[in-house]
TrEMBL record:
Protein name as annotated: C-type lectin domain-containing protein
InterPro entries: C-type_lectin-like, C-type_lectin-like/link_sf, C-type_lectin_CS, CTDL_fold
Gene3D superfamilies in UniProt: Mannose-Binding Protein A, subunit A (3.10.100.10)
Keyword Disulfide bond: yes
Organism listed in the record: Cyclopterus lumpus (Lumpsucker)
Domain of life: Eukaryota
Keywords: Disulfide bond
SMART domains: CLECT
Signal sequence residues: none
Residue ranges constituting the C-type lectin domain according to the UniProt record: 8-122
Length: 138
């Protein structure tokens, strides 16, 4: 169980992966594909990770838009409902857009899960400094 008192660490992965591959990689090496609970999380992520000129999978997916980190005890009321959609998204443009990536400006869009993109994993720590980590290869 954690709350907003717990710090997230964000890990950007440049290696292109499908959403399923990215989710597996994050779960094996970190906590999960990133959960974004509020504007503070979003701003922290944008500050620590250079998202410019990239598109990266985040942990939101499924036609009901649920977080990859699904344990409800991990969220305070409302935190699992935070969304940062880009204007006009989600549009399910290809009728199969059930995964969500983040643009360089931090806004989100739905897209096809098999599309190879970068990804952002996260971990949770109780105290300490939020760490920026970039991996160029597995
Ligand atoms: Ca879309």
């Amino acid at each position: 169980i954690f709350s907003s008192l717990f710090l997230f660490t964000f890990n950007l992965h440049d290696v292109l992966k499908t959403m399923t591959e990215a989710q597996r990689h994050c779960r094996e090496n970190y906590k999960d594909l990133v959960t974004i609970r509020d504007l503070e999380d979003l701003e922290t992520l944008k500050t620590l990770v250079d998202l410019s000129r990239m598109r990266a999978w985040i942990g939101l997916y499924d036609d009901s838009w649920r977080w990859s980190l699904s344990n409800t005890s991990c969220y305070k009321p409302g935190e699992a409902e935070f969304r940062g959609w880009r204007s006009g998204e989600p549009d399910n443009n290809f009728k199969t857009e059930y995964c969500v990536f983040m643009w360089g400006d931090g806004t989100w869009a739905d897209d096809r899960c098999p599309w190879p993109l970068q990804s952002v994993c996260f971990d949770v720590r109780e105290t300490g400094t939020t760490i920026r980590s970039i991996e160029n290869q597995d």
